[in-house]
Amino acid sequence: MRTVRLTVYRFDPTSDERPRYASYEVPYRSGMTVLDSLLYVKEKLDHTLAIRYSCRMGICGSCGMTVNGLPRLACYTQVKEVGWRIKVEPLKNHPLVRDLVTDFTDFFRKYKSMRPWLIRTDAEEQENPTKQYTQSDAELERYIQFSYCISCGLCYAACPVVTALPEFPGPQALASLYRFLADTRDHGRRERLRIVDEAVGLWRCHFAGSCSQVCPKGVDPALAIQLLRREAMRG
Amino acid sequence: MRERNVMLVHYVSGIGILVFGAVHLFTVFFTKPLGETIWETTMLFEGHQFAVLEVYRNALLATSLWFLLLFTTIHALNGLRVIITELFPVPVVRTASKYVLFALGVFLMVYGTRTIIIAHMIG
Question: What would the pLDDT profile of A55-72 be if each residue is shown by its tens digit?
């Protein structure tokens, strides 16, 4: 039977002095994903391995990790796709909790600071709606791709600006802000632009484009940032 | 000043450098009617102690040089501000650098303007 050689980053900051890499041989089966192979390790070889996962089908965005140097969703990455020797490490730009588990607190704090919900100024209308809020296909098209984001943090891990400048909101937060800015039902345009029109905000993106390269859902955060800049210039 | 406006000025000054830099190079290297004199007096220094001043004699060229100085100063110093912002995530350094760069910009503009005016008068 063919086997997959997994080299996994292991580090527990509470007990280990320094990180190490552990190797495991996992029997391959057709259709096996990187997450499947890690779960095999956890069940059969080393139950102390810490990983985070939930849906196993690329929806929840929990199992983001660095696979052979690139940020990927482990459940979305076929072993066959990345080769028989696989190196698995935690996501970069996120503080480490243990082994392959990273802390998303800062990531979600930045996301929340973008106010990722519809801002309305007509409170009375919202309480007692008098009509339907319809959108044309063209209006929907303006933001629909950015609403596919599952907040997996891969773009954030791939962003070189976040690495150099940890205060930078990151591609996910900026793309989510644009998603609501471009929504015709939203009334928070000025407020949203004020959030990102800062010295360490929208303008610090260098358009490396790595965020768009690694997104498992096909979202293009670099495009969102470009469009956001255009909106910011218009004021 | 909002970052949007700062970056707008940055982009405009970049285009300004292209335009006035091209004017400057074009004048110096290619303009023959003016060029014969200007070229020889600026580039050939033999026997001309203040040969380069010939360029400043023309008020239009002197003005275009001033704009080149203005746009280069703005673009370069704002570029430095951005680099400092990205390299030093310390608010004190950022604030201090803003004032230092602003002072440097004022100095460069005052000194440069003075040089252009004097050169124009002498030339």
Answer: 999 999 999 999 999 999
